[in-house]
Amino acid sequence: MQKNKPFLIEPPRPDELPEMLALLAANDLPTDGVEALLDWAVVARSATGLAGMAAVEPCDGDALLRSVAVAARYRGAGLGHQLTVAAQERARRAGFQNLYLLTTTAAGFFAERGFRIIVRSDVPLGVQASAEFSQLCPASATVMTRPLQDKPGRREG
Question: Residue 39's Cα: distance from chain center in Å?
Fold first, then answer.
């Protein structure tokens, strides 16, 4: 684990797709459809290659958080949090209302970042129609969500 390493988090270059797919595979995450999400992805680079990545998939006014992956040697350094925040902010700026995710191993991680567990039947049909939701992740995966936009009349402060 390498701590306190500042990472520049930014959109991936198209030539980084093979490295992104390898990072996902190394983290036992689905790789199907990731090439279509390059415009919605963020990566963190190290001197030796990709240190981590995250992507969102647009789904009819909402978004699905996909592919949050950190290279083994950078785990525990806060990079997963940074990538999650960057992907979440990307989705918020794009105007998506809510962010959903599926996880088999990281419910606690995402709960600490404001996501709450919901039942599958509460997920909007646009998100349920995504390949990740309908085919790639097991039915036993935990489903979580968090709002991205303030509710009318509600202010943060």
Answer: 13
